[in-house]
Amino acid sequence: MLERITSPADVRALPPESLVPLCAEVREAIVEVCGRVGGHLGASLGTVELIVALHRVFHSPVDRLVFDVGHQAYAHKLLTGRRAQLSTLRQAGGVAPFLDPAESAHDAFGAGHACTAISVAVGLVEGLRVTNAPGQVVAIVGDGALTGGLSFEGLNHASVASRGLTIVINDNGMSISQNVGAVARLLERDARRFFESLGFVYVGPIDGHDVHHLIDVLREAKASSKPVVVHARTEKGRGFAPAEADLRTRGHAMGPYELRDGKLVRARPGKTTWSDAFARLLEARLAIDPKVVVVTPAMVEGSSLTALQARFPERVFDVGIAEQHAVTFAAGLAKAGARPVVCIYSTFLQRAYDQVVHDVVLPGLPVVFAIDRAGLVGADGATHQGAFDVSFLRPLPGLAIAAPVYLEDLGELLDWSLQRTGPAAIRFPRGVITGPRPGGLVPAPASRWLARPPQPSLVFVTSGVLGLQAVEAAQGLSWGVLDAGDVARLDRALLREAANSGALVVVEEASPRGGLGDAVLEVLAEEGLSPRVSVVGLPADAFVKHGEANAQRRALGLHADGLREAGHALVSQGAP
């Protein structure tokens, strides 16, 4: 049956008795695709009946379906003409990991970060009114997103929307893992009074896996002249036993995998990641210093903090999907004398920028930002590429920024940051650990030579693990490699020494606008130095889409061969 579905119109044309079998086929297709290419499995398995019902009642794309992130939307992709391409999910040139209006007119708004759907939906409702355009708007919001402040700002406005708006609460009791805080209890015990007090018509809670009842309720919501909240109880990982048995995340991101003799076999590299290593080092510091605490915005699993939370449950704070609160909460902890470490992805830190500036850096509080997924992340695509943290953090007075090259650097950076009287950021990539560190190198975060020939004709200036690619690129040549150390305060003496080579290639896995390259150029200008300079980094005028991260690095020249080519090109410019 699924093979005959090319658009939502085909879903609406089916006889009612075909809907339950269709849901079974959709669920089977999601399991099969995620097994081959990976993806966010659990949430999408839980929304199959809900999405079939939505496409049965609403007429996308005239009616706008706004999903709060795309974790829950694989069934939507299958029913909107992308079934044959779904096996390319998250791969270069393939189906986007989240929602992308450039990919399909049925994707009303793109989102890879949570908590945006209600605000977008209210904007669409008012925009359709202003432009006198047809259509209704539905926001599909996971209950985990209701821990985010933006969702509540949207609810405050949505209750006075001027025309039809439906908010569907997809309540599975989880974000990535179990929800935390009072909102989860509110949905369990008193949701009706809460939403009705805001001015909504409230319907629920209803069985989110009864497709026929969902259709009846959604038809009533569509006919209402007032904004409606439909509260649907769903099960994350529904219909796939290995996901249902995963009590921590219910199969949030389980692939690639395969079933052998009825048992799930998952593909795992088996190597220690930077996230793993940082969590282990952090655990050792918590064991020594009772003032050290950890804050994470619903990323216990992603930041490898599960064991740490189990050992120190009173000192590891999961604040839910609430990045702004995470940062200002950490500021309060620091003000009270604790030493908070905020474990947060690079792109999630973007959501709390004013809090970083106003609540941490301005008062000079000793908060440590452990910035995970700094640089390219690969399959999660443009919404998750850690491209901008150096650019937005480097201008802030008093904030130090450094990145490890080797495993040994990571512990030194953690100790350095915990000993500071002001804020610090440690940025590290998604990927496996590098090491061991060669003997004789200066400890991090000092600027240091990773390769230092007697009279170099060119010097790579790097930050973090890209220094290893630069060392490989320099082998056999009279080229040096300088690790920048604290990017916010470059070592001017070493940079002057590097500039004496006459040619500098600055290498960064970040945006070159405002990043390390600009930092180097600023110092050269202030020092009156004028070597030839080339900057190799992420694109300055485009976002990097989804694909395999190492393939993207090769395409962007962020590997040994590409850096060697950049070096030869720069040296040749000065040849007589």
Overall pLDDT score: 87
Globular, elongated, flat, extended or rod-shaped: what is the shape?
A: globular
Total strand segments: 18
Tally of helical segments? 23
CATH-derived architecture of the largest domain: 3-Layer(aba) Sandwich
CATH topology of the largest domain: Rossmann fold
Low-confidence stretches: 258-264
Distance between the termini: 70 Å
Radius of gyration: 25 Å
CATH superfamily of the largest domain: Thiamin diphosphate (ThDP)-binding fold, Pyr/PP domains
Largest sheet: 6 strands, parallel
Strand order of the largest sheet: 9-8-10-11-13-12
Helicity level, as a percent range?
Answer: 25-40%
Q: Would you tell me the structural class of the helices and strands? A: alpha/beta
CATH classification class of the largest domain: Alpha Beta
**Number of structural units classed as domains:** 3
What is the percentage of strand-forming residues? Answer: 15-25%
Task: Explain what this protein looks like in three dimensions.
The chain is an alpha/beta fold and 576 residues long. It folds into 3 domains: 2-260, Rossmann fold (3-Layer(aba) Sandwich), CATH 3.40.50.970; 274-427, Thiamin diphosphate (ThDP)-binding fold, Pyr/PP domains (Rossmann fold), CATH 3.40.50.970; 448-573, 3-Layer(aba) Sandwich (Rossmann fold), CATH 3.40.50.920. 38% of the residues lie in helices and 15% in strands. The chain contains 23 helices and 18 strands. Strands 9-8-10-11-13-12 form a 6-stranded parallel beta sheet, sandwiched between helices. It has a 5-stranded parallel beta sheet with strand order 1-2-3-5-4, sandwiched between helices. The longest helix is centred in the N-terminal third of the chain and has 19 residues, at 19-37. The protein starts with 7 loop residues before the first helix and ends with a helix. 53% of the residues are buried. The model is unreliable at 258-264 (pLDDT under 50).
